[in-house]
């Protein structure tokens, strides 16, 4: 798992080092930000839960990886959103709050399988969102979404081995 963390750390550092030009966000960009900021915040919180409640070291490590990577991705999104005037909610919405509550309530014996299934589901959805934004988004979102799609694809690859 250490190799995975090092590889994704490089991607996250690349995201942090990109300079964004202030470009107004389109309505599609705003909708994209609303969706992925909530999903990303959920993945950070779910990763923290997995790091604590995971029954296997693999799930615990993946939870830590999720938290690390999605905090970096979220910081990049917040920076771009701030530069383009797009607000990001500071808390999880009702959908993701309920999803997190459900994750926390899963019995220990079922936790790992539930968490991996949940992460596969959200990453599969995210992959499509990021790929679409990487081709159709405004300049700063397009570049960021492309870089983030690489990370999402890597996470999916690892999830599919579990």
TrEMBL record:
TM region positions: none
Signal peptide: 1-21
Chain ranges of the DUF4142 domain: 28-157
Keywords associated with the record: Signal
PANTHER family, per database record: BLR2558 PROTEIN (PTHR38593:SF1)
Protein's name according to its UniProt entry: DUF4142 domain-containing protein
Species this protein is from: Granulicella cerasi
Organism classification: Bacteria, Pseudomonadati, Acidobacteriota, Terriglobia, Terriglobales
